[in-house]
Write the structure tokens for this entry.
Amino acid sequence: MKIFNLSIHSRKQRELIDITDYVESIIRESRITNGLVIITTLHVTAGILINEYEDKLKWDILNKLTALCASRSYRHHRYHYEDGRPAVNAPSHLAVILASQPSVALLIENGSLLLSRRQRIMLLEADGPKERSLKVRVVEE
């Protein structure tokens, strides 16, 4: 089992970033032929999803998340009880909860990710721009 660090820099407040090529590169580096890759984000306002990475669909996804998670008088929009820091990102938390996961596991077959032609691995950034840290674990069969 090998664990790799992946750092992604988002550029927008809310965006979908294709990370498939990064994950495939890690699989090649690991030299594992068959097994499993587990991708985990270490953040609560960024998540991982698998879907088609197409401009109009990305717009639809982000537009729907913006509508569903529009700013309102969320309780989280005040401050953290623990340390008093401002917390004005409740819509970001909700978007990640609704549209992504903190981790995904995918099969590796013959040294390649087992994805359909249209499937891509995406990082959902919901509170950017920020540097995001991901862990990628490659497990041999």
Q: What stands out?
A: The chain has one domain: 2-140.
